[in-house]
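Q: Hi! First time doing this. I have a protein sequence and I read that you can turn it into a structure. Is that right? Here it is:
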Amino acid sequence: METLTFESDDLGATEDFLSRAYARMHIGSSTPDAGRARVSRTGIAPVSVDEIDLSFEMSYSVTPLGKVCLCVMHDGTVRDHSFQGVKDDFGPGDVVMFAPPDLPYSGRICNARYNITMLEPALLSQVAGEQGGPPVRLTGHRPHTPAVARQLGRTIAYLRDQMLADPAVAEQPLVASTAAQHLAASVLSAFPNTALTDDAGAHGRDERDARPVILRRALAYIDDHADQPVTLSDIAAAAHVTPRALQYAFRRHLDTTPLAHLRRVRLAQAHRDLVAGDSADGATVTDIAARWGFHHPGRFASFYRGTYRCAPHQTLNGG
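A: Yes, that's right. Below is the predicted 3D structure, encoded as structure tokens:
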């Protein structure tokens, strides 16, 4: 796990630190001794989350970072932020991509407090399932809607405050991998990108070609994780769409909902265990049902009879 902190009121020291922490840059201020720079970082490969507080006005010119760099504004403003073909201002509540990984950028920071989250670009292709082809790229610097921007901001805050707050947790390989992939999936859901997914609920385009891809990813995720706690948001993140878009896809193509399909998969797994089980060896309907997430025996029996036309204890006893 990576951690660092920095605090200085010396502009030269701040420029040197920022150049080492991000990429080579030049910064300038009309009042070099007017304020203080504070930076704190927590990170797990391949993701880092920084909180930055610059209590003065500063211009910046930065060489390409080589990483996807996201900014969540807390206070103050960023003005005249520019990279190839884009010029924009950011204020409190805005969530933006500073620039594509391979492009330089410049602008002015005005007494701002903000979050910088960086991730390796290869994560986007990995999560999108597009490895081996052209790299997946974000094609816009602002999210589709304010709502998805807020959701991404909450994801970053959760990563910072929950998953990275405890080094003993953050250093577990499964936690690190899950956190990085979840962030990448959230970024793909929030920003327009080149991956072969689409979200008509977010930006109103025809989704007929994309939905089979979404469904394949969602169905594969359900099959692989049916024995684990799974939420609608988990499945949507794995499919790189919003929960609402995922529900639409399931209704349109399968005439069901994601969670109803998950229940059917779990019921089929419970049926398999009942067939293979033997009450003489201590197997019970209650234990098998609970193993697959059915904690109410009566409700499980009702679901089971509706599908398999017999009681679960009959299957367990070879009936």
